[in-house]
């Protein structure tokens, strides 16, 4: 009979959470510093650090304290580790757009988002040249969307191609400003250079954003 994997000792996850919080609060730390702050042994601290590295939450670096002295190994948060902490970006975006709308009118929000679209399109257009098949351009778009947390997929159906987003990383903003979704649709149309039609929208309470492409 195969033995079940041992459950983590009580308090293990809490210790890892505290460790991440210490690195967030104090910046890159050595294993010795973290062990002292957590009041655990250095080998115990290293085990937690190893686990957090495997989870992609921490990375090891070699730095000189204060820019001089002997190099030492420190542990710092990765982008994924930073993302584990609460952010207020979405509420900040809503506030900024609200002030733009109040000061300059509803059309100004769409102008701002349109300018953002133009910048994104200029950056991504070389990855989706018109000479490539639509399937390749669509897959390139899916790859970019997934880098930003959209959990996108593309599939071929009898009626043509579809693009589905299973997550909306901008949901808070999209619920307040439908212009964001309109700008998103315009961006996809411009990048793919074919008609794109949205059929469902997460911001409207549906389970996914679903598009017909071509």
From TrEMBL:
Gene3D superfamilies: Winged helix-like DNA-binding domain superfamily/Winged helix DNA-binding domain. Residues 12-68 form the HTH marR-type domain. GO terms for molecular function: DNA-binding transcription factor activity. It holds the Pfam family MarR_2. PANTHER family: HTH-TYPE TRANSCRIPTIONAL REGULATOR SRLR-RELATED, TRANSCRIPTIONAL REGULATORY PROTEIN-RELATED. This is Transcriptional regulator. It comes from Deinococcus arcticus.
